[in-house]
Amino acid sequence: MNNKANVAVVILTYNESVHIARALKCIVGFANEIFVVDSYSSDDTVDLAKENGAQVLQHPFQNYARQFEWALENAPINADWVMRLDADEIIEADLAAEIRAKLPTLPADVTGINLNRKTIFQGKFIRWGGRYPLTLLRIWRHGKAHIEDRWMDEHMYLTEGRTVTFGGGFSDHNLHDLTFFTAKHNGYASREALDVLNRRLHLFDPQVELTRQTTAKQAKIKRFFKESVYNRLPFEISAIFYFLFRYVVQLGFLDGREGLIYHFLQGFWYRFLVGAKLRELEQAVKEATSEEERRSVIARLSRQRLK
User: Model-level pTM?
Assistant: First the structure.
């Protein structure tokens, strides 16, 4: 008996040989279509993806949002539902069973499904500090959702319908070391600083406004406080208070030594770095004498190919 759900899973990759086989093995039991969109990896990501049942497409990378939207437009998706999954994420057995059982029974007005993601850091489940659950829109009816056109913190949003939430296990479990973690977040900081600068100077097209109806409520609330409160404060103050809020008020200290490392790096160092990079960008832009020079300076400092 075919126990697969009518769902296509889309995964973006670049040098994900350490993760991709694990990610594919946890979805092969319920996904009837699997697409890996690779940014020309130099390791054996593509070979591993094909060996584990994925169709592989390749496309040059600009940013996550643009790459994922390209995937939605170009992957030969025939399934009724689409799922977004990162290569370092895991769909646990209970969630896989929930998808198989519930997906065919949902009413037509349900066009999106939220999943509750947990973070595994250095082998530790980071339960506190506001990190669990992270509720994200990750499954939607084909053609009923898009991804925000942002440099960082991009969310899926629905074009119509409503969402429900599945409660099964869904984990972000990156297997790389701290050097990789800090390098990745250094890149994230550049992209997030560029996003904030964009909103202040209107460099690019206006972005979609998230609402409770179009994406997970938690994502909407977090976005509101980040843009309306946090980003309006001096970063020297906001980064400190955010870390203390996560670590003390939201009980991050209960996550032990691994939690201290994670909350300090992700909740203070990263937030401080975003603010410092934004300050650097703003000062450089003020000194530019033309629009062309301004864009050139922004591209150089952020190390991003501007749209």
Answer: 0.90
